[in-house]
Amino acid sequence: MTTIYALTDYKGNFESKYNAVPYNSGMDKDLLKKYFSGFGFEIMFVKFSDVINYPNAFWPDKIVIYTSSEDTGYYYKSFIEDIIFHLELSRAKVIPSYKYLRANNNKVFMELVRHQFNSEAIDLPTTIYGSYEEIKKIRSELNFPLVYKRAAGAMSRGVGIIINQVNLARKIKKISKTPNLLREFWEYGRSLKYKGYIRESRHRKKFLVQQYIEGLNGDFKVLIFGDKYYVLKRGTRKGDFRASGSGIRVFSREIPEGILEYANLCINILDVPNASLDIGYNGKSFFLIEFQCLYFGSFTLTYSDFYWLRTKHNKFELVEGKSVLEEEYARSIVNRCIQDESTFCM
User: Fold this and answer.
1) Following DSSP, what letter does each residue of 90-147 receive, concatenated?
2) Does 111 map to a domain?
3) Which of 97, 132, 164, 172 has the most CB atoms within 10 Å of its CB?
């Protein structure tokens, strides 16, 4: 029986689950063992901190799945990134690949990953910045309105609209500020001592800016686990364009024609076994607003009474019934990444 190594955090948690018991404890590990075993695979849970106890020669071609973290300050997530990058360098089959961990709760790197695919289908006009000064230099060239996003954050925190240059200065300074009074004192002293010295910016938190898309009154959260697609319509509050975090959620079997095909195109481009896609639709075109390929919310799967099943001919059939997160996660890993020996393992 092939062994899959599942890396857990310092609490012993694996991945995320909306209705986990106890709260915020991730997927049920006993259920994961059960379902992976049913598919013919053994799962072994290993803590991130124990990875270094294995010799490098152990990891080539070993199948590794793992969790991420949304800890305050992302300190533990940084540790996880070190471990997963090490395993990729050791030629383990890390699922998903390190780039998607780096992109998790990091919207700037997510846009860089999107940019790498060079695909018009999932492209959005986006610029990224590492300081306020960088966008300040070109503010007269920008076409408003624009959407700004702080690199880290969920539920639309740190996301808003910029309508003019004055608005830009106020909002971008707010989301990018990096105050440090002692450092600012030393920088001021250096500017007096050294002629021409440019002070360190007080606004160095990275962020991105996108062109505002007209005609959106919400978006669709689409969760994909292998060949099963779960769709949730998310609305917006009056006077607010943000759907994530609005609390306006509707499960409906009536969805825009073509959205499942578009979601299928997106996940084929991403090359992952499961994903969470935020898809916008303005009545004419679909837009991939954001994506996550691990550690995403499972509300849409957990509370949906139906799903769409992708057939061998890439058609979609509506299926009535509930799903179990651990089962669908295990199935997506096994069927798409292992038994098919597809590129999704790379």
Assistant:
1) TT-EEES-HHHHHHTT-HHHHHHHHHHH--TTT---EEEESSHHHHHTTGGG--SSEE
2) no
3) 172
